[in-house]
Amino acid sequence: xxxxxxxxxxxxxxxxxxxxxxxxxxxxxxxxxxxxxxxxxxxxxxxxxxxxxxxxxxxxxxxxxxxxxxxxxxxxxxxxxxxxxxxxxxxxxxxxxxxxxxxxxxxxxxxxxxxxxxxxxxxxxxxxxxxxxxxxxxxxxxxxxxxxxxxxxxxxxxxxxxxxxxxxxxxxxxxxxxxxxxxxxxxxxxxxxxxxxxxxxxxxxxxxxxxxxxxxxxxxxxxxxxxxxxxxxxxxxxxxxxxxxxxxxxxxxxxxxxxxxxxxxx
Length: 266
Fold this sequence. Notes:
With about 270 residues, the protein is an alpha/beta fold.
């Protein structure tokens, strides 16, 4: 198959457990660039949390951020897809935290708002590279559009214990899914990485069967199902692996290099 695009999740897939790029990923990315195969970052992160990785790998490809809510044809744009939650749904999600008492992180117009400035907020902000503002500084009722997404963060034990209940209590138009074991994300159910890839396919004239998707998390499943060929990182949850055509090495060993050696060069 003449593959033209590899769509990869970042955390738990592209990056190792320490949040770094495995050494063999740089050479693999350079090989893909030389062959004209787009390496597309598809992540729950906002654009600002992607730029260093994008630049380190010397990419020129489109970028999918916020679980598919925003799609850029390159790091400098243009923005070809942008979808947000409704304000009513957003207010409902905020109210859920009266039950769960987690730290809320909310993205609105590429600004990060947090319910309190504590360890959890600063840890999340550190990953994204954005300085957070307090949530009480914005009144969603007076905004023209809703937020892109929410992240509830706390201990692994708490997030694990509330995940299913939070999903049941969320509006039907909102998806609640863990993107890291200690991050529970809420976003519009019409948002998906698969939808984002379809926008890129249309813009670049790339067919689904020419796309490889790779991920490790539950929020990657729709992307794996969309692509012509699906790869799960070796560290993926067993349920995610059921959606894969190939099980690669773990994220610590360089998943993209594994795909290049075992699929692209074959």
